[in-house]
Amino acid sequence: MTGPEIFSSLPALPVVPLPVPGESLGSWVTAVAQTYGMPLAEYLRRLGIPHRRGAAATERTERDLVVRPCPAVIQALQADTGVATPVLLGMTFDGLDRDLEEACHRHHAPCPACDKDAGQPARRSVRLLSARAAWRVVCPVHLPIPRSDEVAPGIPLASIDEQLRTILGFLDRAAFDRTAFADLVGIRLASAITVGAFVRFVYLLNAHLRIRITGFDTMRDRAEFRIVGCFDRNEGGAPMPLPAAERNTPALSLLLAWQLTIDPLRTLLTGMRTLHPVRRKSMQDIAQVTGLLDLLLEIWLGEILASLLASGSMSIGQQPGNEGHAALAVALTDHRRNAPDHDLILAEAGWNHAALIGLLFSGEFPRRTQRLSQFANIGPFQYRHVAAGLRMASAVQRRRQKVWANRAWDKRAGLQQLLSEPKRPARGKAAASRRPPEARRDPDPPVPPSARIVEAVQVVMAAHVWLFLSDCAYSLTTSTIP
Predict the structure, then answer these.
(1) Burial class (CB in 10 A: 0-12, 13-18, 19+), 399
(2) pLDDT digits (tens, 9 = 90+) for 175-195
(3) Half-sphere exposure of residue 193, counting CA atoms within 13 Å on the CB side?
(4) What are phi and psi of 230, to 5 degrees?
(5) N or C: which end of the chain has fewer CB within 10 A?
(6) pTM score, two decimals?
(7) pLDDT-based confidence at 337, cuts 50/70/90?
């Protein structure tokens, strides 16, 4: 790091070590103190930082320098070293999104190879700022090598590494720019998606969902996943994380979270498969889809599921293999139409579609109103607020209720018609003139169904939903997408 732009004034100290590119302010302040053989605590007192005892206190002081530096300390350090204020602040997280600050206090995952490469030219120990970046799930320079049980043979690992570096580079920018997600998900959804929520989603996926990459589209930088294992719940209903030995490398969870965010519909329907093939689905596959939805609703409540609810054809009354499911599956797999296994891809997309819609309209998820998460704190993020309590979630909830209310009840036979609201007559003189004479009198008030009939209908509907989900293990295995 050389050049006249580093210094903005003459330093008060006769010798000033140059900061290394990417070095944290705490590391460089330590180097300044060591240059003069001065204990770090004594030099911090010179800068105006009160003395703290013990190794933990020193660590806390260093974190304070990096995460939220005091302006008076920066001013004193600039006068001592002559280094320009923008350069000093560039070694800190100044301007960081506030929901990431506490996570950066708790996060410390240095890459030994990067620290060694940075320290060799300077001939001193160097601690990089990226070690405390909570969104740096893995090091973009030294990416971990996936295990053999995580990636199918023949997958281009170089393409996966390039995609991971692109994701981490975006997070480096988005951590300081709340509008960065607008380029990916649109302005409406960008207000609900932050880097903190996204990375917490990565840790939740890593701790509760085990996946395997079964394919990779190098033209579109899209991976295909299979769910290998999913979390269970204890007797109290709380989710239990997977054992540490059974978890994926965090890089795989980062890739999955990224694709679920930027292209949720394609990822959910055609980019993911449950454990068993489409003709051998079981309740274990239903449990995996249910667990995935639990994780999705934990973070976004349905912002990334809203596209599933945008069409009136996605009704729970429709069965797998019909025109609505087939049309969506064909549209999403158009780029794979010449693949030899296209029929299997369509069948999996239809099964995923039916299972997801059945769960979303089952009545269980719309009643999730808790504001605190049932999932344990994972990673450096300690807040447990569920997205259901956010303003964005209420808008999505209203959209889901509207889809539910606008379904074609009048086309459905049986007792379900009793729950549909009667159509209101048109108002105004013009509307009255268009009606036939025998219909221009005041309509008789609708006779509400008795309480017993309503109760019976509700029981029938609840049973219908449960049978729909239970029969996925059998009926969907014997049907294919035409």
Answers:
(1) middle
(2) 988 788 888 887 767 766 788
(3) 28
(4) -135, 160
(5) C
(6) 0.76
(7) confident
